[in-house]
Amino acid sequence: MSQNPLTLPRVAIDFMNRDHDDFAGLRATLLNQIAGGTTDAVDSLLDELHQHTIRHFADEEKLMQETNFPVYPVHKGEHDSVLADMAARITRWRQDGDRDALQKWLDRGVGDWLVTHIASMDTVTAQFAAARQAR
Ligand SMILES: [Fe+2]
User: Fold this and answer.
1) Distances, alpha carbon 117 to alpha carbons 35, 81, 99, in Å
2) Is residue 9 part of a domain?
């Protein structure tokens, strides 16, 4: 099963780059487990990805609030909708155990979203925060 390879843009805040790399690593491990691992392994990696995303979004939101990022509600709104989608996707997986659907969501949906989100909202947020912190 081929994976949608991710080229993640670098942003101006280090912790964000580290978290994005960790997320990409978790996603790749999870895709391998969906292809050939046990249901328990998939379940626990999905939980890990979900917890990582909740914590990472909270850290970005804290940074935006501390630096008075002007379009905080837009960025926060996208985080909220991604978390709602992820929670719904995990619930559906627990009900139907459909590996193909889970694989497609994670490979294409999440992969494409991640690159676009980093290239747009995260890039602008990090640039703004780095400029504020440098003052
Ligand atoms: Fe973000």
Assistant:
1) 26, 13, 25
2) no
